[in-house]
Amino acid sequence: MTEKTTGGGGKYDWFWFLLPALILVVIFFFLPIIITFFISGTNMSTATGFQNWKWIGLKNYQRISSHPETLEHLWLTVKYVAFTLVFFNLGMSLVIALLTTHISRGVGFLFRAVWLLPRITPVVVYVMMWRFIAADAPYGILNQIIIKPLGLKTANWLPMAPFLFIVLVNGFIGASFGMILFSSAIESIPKDLMMASLVDGSSYLQRIRYLIIPHLRWPLLFVTTFQTLSLMTSFEQILVLTDGAYNTEVWALWAYHKALSTYSGNLQWGFGTALAAILVTIGIVMAVIYMRYFKFEELVQEPKIETQ
Amino acid sequence: MKRIFLLLLALMVFPALIFAGGKQEVAKEEGPKEVKIVIRAKGNPTEHWKVDAFDEAVKLLNEELQAEGDNRTVVIEKIFDDASWADVVRSFAMSADAGEAPDIILGGHEHIAVYSTAGYIIPLADSVSEIKKMYPEFDDVIDNLWASCMLHGKVWGVPQDIEARPLYYSIPKLKALGWSNAKIKALPERIKKGEFTLDDMIATAKEAVAKGVVEPGHGYWHRPKRGPDFYQYYFSYGGYFYDPDENKLVIVEDALEKWYAFQRKIVDEGITPENFIGTDWRIWHDTVSHGKALFWNGGSWQWGEWAGIYLKDQGGQEYLFENVGYALQPSGVRGKSGGTLSHPTVYMVTTEKASGRKGRDLAVRLLAKVTTKELNTKHAVESTHIGILKSQANYPPYNKDRFLSDVIYMLDYNYFLPNHVMFSTWEDAVWEGMQAAEIGQRSPQDSTAATIKLLQAELGDALIVK
Prior knowledge:
The structure holds two protein chains of two kinds.
Chain A: H1 13-39, H2 59-66, H3 70-100, H4 105-115, H5 117-120, H6 123-134, H7 141-147, H8 157-160, H9 162-187, H10 191-199, H11 204-215, H12 217-233, H13 236-241, H14 251-260, H15 269-293
Helix pairs in contact in A: 1-15, 2-15, 3-4, 3-9, 3-12, 9-12, 10-11, 12-15, 14-15
Chain B: H1 2-20, E1 34-42, H2 49-68, E2 73-81, H3 85-97, E3 104-108, H4 111-118, H5 128-134, H6 136-139, E4 150-151, E5 154-155, E6 158-161, E7 167-170, H7 171-176, H8 181-193, H9 198-210, E8 220-221, H10 231-236, E9 242-243, E10 248-251, H11 253-268, H12 281-289, E11 295-297, H13 300-310, H14 317-323, E12 324-327, E13 340-341, E14 345-349, H15 352-355, H16 360-370, H17 373-383, H18 396-399, H19 402-407, E15 414-415, H20 423-438, H21 444-459, E16 463-465
């Protein structure tokens, strides 16, 4: 601690700077992960309590690997993450960001504010709205306003297209995240560049393709990474919407049900945390792949765009 | 290994203690004469007597203690909410492990298995005859209800309420179908004797749809969401849950397949809407209470909800008696009597370790004081639950309630869920299979095979496939 550097600080100053964050990371990230992996090696459940559990090694994982529904839940999760990510968290948010930055600033701002509504509405209220949109005739909004006037056959739409609904419900919330990042990134592209491209004769579409999108590379990569991981572990909207019925039990919801919510009785904390531990592992692997593949270290280097 | 785990847990708890910043409660110096008993129950607003009955009971108990010269006085704290059962189990388990559980917890009788295995609750007696001798109030409990409180030969709970899950039917719709008053009146008896089966019900409902008496898909409505009510069809076809000798759960393949086939058939025959599971409760209540369906399965407690909420403006119970009939759940096998699934809620007494308080004897004694015809009837009448005491049958405030008196016979034909630790896993699997069969995602046969495979994977040795 006595050795001084030219900066005037101590050799271990970095440590003291990092300490507050380090404590938080250890307590709220590392320890829960370690505990998750630990509990996943036990038979802990409501019936054993926290006192009478036994160490069972990898049995929970063996049970998962031989479970007849493992592949089903896994495939559903992959599909759910991919569709929501591509069509909404990236696709829809990019479209909204592009549209609202190509109209008058005030209107664009208002439009984006509207898109924030799903995110700021409490989940239960928001999902209840969807339930009433989809509800069977004579109640559902969809049935009353569109299907019946057109003389088509009414239905209870949620079980008809459960996958579509879980993607829509999550997508409409998720879209606002990318929308904010993308539109602020578009706004920060130097105006002279934007003007110059039009003066040089490019169409709006060409400008998007050759100027705006390349400038959005980083936010796009960030949103992809962040939202993949977040979608993989998200389940609360699905919980309220279908509670996993009609084949909508994504992996995270499966873990939740096993560990924390059975209809009556025994909560299998050991098995549930084993399911969660697999999700954590996949998340870590995905994060590493994204960071390597997308060269995240370049993100923290000099800004690519000169500020005016 | 446990040490490491405890260390990790301690590390987790450590910051919580820091942030709690001295909020830690200092152990209260309670007077030697005051014994605190905390009671936790859940229920809808009409079921508030589940805890409120203790106000009266504690007075009676304290009077008795005083008369006996006992220097203890009981004070109670009531916790009542409308949480889901899963939330109740979760929060109770956490509090019991922390030594902060209530002294008396109300739960479904099947919770006994989990709570007792975890060591959260105490056995109240070693046999039914013993508990009946403990207090005269317990002797008044309808005998077969004790079966739902038993595990490993011991009594773990005291029944609080019970219900039946009748088959309801619309009287005007049956009349429109050409049924005479006498025929309608005889229906409950025919179901009881096994003369009117599930197949007859389907045929009648189909006829009603064909003749335009009800709208398509309104011939028969089951419960719209998950619940134990569906197991009644499994039972109707000869299924059962549990082998007490082996202490194992049971799945009867043939009954399971017939049950799943029933769920699909009602949709195929057009008497239940396609994709009906998941319909909002409000829509369901509104439809059935206003007689827009011919047959429907519900709970006896829903009678009160319909009268008090959905039919308040049409005359409540009076309207219901004119328009709605009720019977046992029909059998799937001709000649076999109908039945009903009852799900008694029971009071359990937590261990000293789980509650962090002494005075178990007083908690049990308080339960006796609450198990009286006066107090239980208040709950039964307000929430339309069936009485649990023999004396209620002749107790005017109870038997003047026409509906409750009418349905009490159903308890002679009831059955219970098993008190088995892994029953919720059994439930998860059969529910999933049932949904797949009803919405047509899998055929009843395929769904049966998938369910059995899943049950075997999940339950292993704890399951017997018949």
